[in-house]
Specification:
Blueprint lengths: L8 H6 L16 H5 L5 E5 L5 H9 L4 E5 L3 H13 L5 E4 L17 E5 L17 H10 L5 E6 L2 H14 L2 E6 L14 H8 L5 E6 L5
Parallel strand pairs: 1-2, 1-4, 2-3, 4-5
Antiparallel strand pairs: 5-7, 6-7
Organism: Exiguobacterium profundum
Pfam families: Methyltransf_4
Pathway: tRNA modification; N(7)-methylguanine-tRNA biosynthesis
């Protein structure tokens, strides 16, 4: 995806302090204080323009959500939508997923969503995939015991790689779908990419994976 640079994005987001968190490291271990409650905390790594996470937040007002998007020119779309339609249970971060342990304490995040991540198809780029073992270790570090990852993609190669990577890491799967929209759950929230690829007739792959508790 080619990103259109938006030089005004950073200044705009920084002005929305109630939505955009500039220094998330200062909230490590204290996200419940930021939200003003002890509701479960779900994060989406790679939120794009926010259709999924905002839909989830509307569907689940008793859950706190954090949208994590590396690129300011993309994340600003989420912030704009939250300004237009306020949702007190959503915050936005522009940080690198490699550094999640700098922003969340062990067990502070209750669930991680990975939706339509960059497949990085070349073998030499495998370490960049969000389901590579180092990323899995990062998610495990911020999730509770038996923490969950929910994953969706249109890319069969990435899906197969992720199943293998998670299995080798010691995770197990509680749900696997090779064509989610054949019997689409009523509560499924579609991402922008999901709608686009489904309209083209491409199957949507989905799984729920759980970390095995360590003794």
């Amino acid at each position: 995806m080619r990103l259109r640079h938006k030089p005004w994005a950073k200044e705009y987001m920084e002005a929305q302090e109630h939505v955009f968190i500039q220094h998330p490291e200062q909230l490590k271990g204290n996200w419940s204080t930021e939200f003003g409650n002890d509701h479960p905390l779900f994060i989406e790594v790679g939120s794009g323009k926010g259709q999924f996470i905002l839909g989830m937040a509307q569907q689940h007002p008793d859950v706190n959500f954090i949208a994590i998007e590396l690129f300011e020119s993309v994340a600003v779309s989420i912030v704009q939508k939250l300004v237009e339609t306020p949702m007190p249970n959503v915050r936005v971060l522009t940080v690198d997923a490699k550094r999640l342990v700098d922003y969340f304490e062990a067990g502070e995040v209750d669930r991680v969503y990975l939706n339509f991540s960059d497949p990085w198809p070349k073998t030499r780029h495998a370490k960049r995939r969000l389901t590579y073992k180092t990323f899995l270790a990062t998610y495990e570090a911020i999730l509770p015991k038996a923490g969950e990852i929910h994953f969706k993609t249109d890319n069969r190669g990435l899906f197969e790689y992720s199943l293998q990577s998670m299995s080798q890491y010691g995770m197990f799967f509680t749900e696997i779908s090779l064509d989610l929209h054949v019997n689409e759950p009523e509560d499924n929230i579609r991402t922008e990419y999901e709608e686009r690829f489904s309209a083209l007739g491409q199957p949507i792959y989905r799984m729920e994976a759980v970390f095995r508790p360590k003794n």
